[in-house]
Amino acid sequence: MFAGWNLPISLYINVVILVHLLLGVSVFSSELKVRVRLVDGQVAEETLEADSEQDIITLEFKQRDGTLITFVADFKKEVKIFRTLILGELERGQRQYQVLCFVTRLNHNELISSESMARLRQKNPRAIRSAEERRGMEQLSMGMAVNLSRAGQLSPHLRNVCREAGAAIYTQQADAQHWLDHGVEGATFQPLPQSWEGPGLEDCPSSPGLWQPCVCRYSLRLEWYPCLLRYCHTHAARASPYKCGIRSCSKGFHFRFYVPYRHLCLWDEEDT
């Protein structure tokens, strides 16, 4: 828009802000650091970022074993992205780290909007928080692989978030069908072997060899996130309720997916 203008950077920023004001566009972005009590009693620091212009929310935290969990909610595309970076054990012949990505549909009212999130402020940043509502574990069977080179059709953020996962990007067959019905190209998805959910393929902990295909499992929990807005009422007659806070939730996710080699799912042995 201003490519042909040789403006000082400060003046350029002022012009951009003025354009947003003239167009009536409100843009909010923020970052919160929240100390959260994990289920094992440990305390972790969550980073929550919200960008109302891109209409996304990002939540990130590190588990006690060093695993880095990243969650992205893309409201424009109605997509959730779960990314986990798992540190390997070099003495067991594992790579330095392994990245997995799981992509699912974002349902309405799962969490508050990016604009509401961007407005949140903490009164006591040092407080250790626990979720008010602890939701159960959602079971997800990930029967499709997502082609990274075409993943931008699902969300413009997916390729950047999951670029290190390579072929280890998974989604559910029902979600893939929904996106296909809404114009996403068929080459975006690749069905995993049809036998992987049948009786013939064993879970990875029971698989006889490191180079055998098996069904891998991975579980994670978002320990604290704002899931609902809280509304209060005044004593004045006919007064409308007003926003006066948030309700926090915790929710777990259990993923099952095919791997061509048990060697790619060694953490599953440690959890059994």
Structure notes:
This protein has 272 residues and is mainly beta. It has one domain (29-270). 14% of the residues lie in helices and 40% in strands. The chain is built from 5 helices and 13 strands. It has helices at 9-23, 114-118, 158-162, 173-181, 267-270; strands spanning 29-37, 43-51, 56-62, 68-74, 79-87, 97-105, 128-129, 133-142, 144-146, 169-171, 189-191, 214-232, 242-259. The strands form 2 sheets. Strands 7-1-2-3-4-5-6-10-9-11 form a 10-stranded mixed β-sheet. A 3-stranded mixed β-sheet has the order 8-13-12, with no helix packed on it. The longest helix has 15 residues, at 9-23. The radius of gyration is 22 Å and the shape is globular.
Blueprint (SSEs and pairs):
Blueprint lengths: L8 H15 L5 E9 L5 E9 L4 E7 L5 E7 L4 E9 L9 E9 L8 H5 L9 E2 L3 E10 L1 E3 L11 H5 L6 E3 L1 H9 L7 E3 L22 E19 L9 E18 L7 H4 L2
Parallel strand pairs: 1-7, 6-10, 8-13
Antiparallel strand pairs: 1-2, 2-3, 3-4, 4-5, 5-6, 9-10, 9-11, 12-13
Keywords: Membrane, Transmembrane, Transmembrane helix
Protein name: Out at first protein homolog
Family: Belongs to the OAF family.
Instruction: Give start-end ranges of low-pLDDT stretches.
Output: 1-25
What is the end-to-end distance?
57 Å
Count up the helices: 5
> What composes the largest sheet?
10 strands, mixed
Rg, Å, rounded? 22 Å
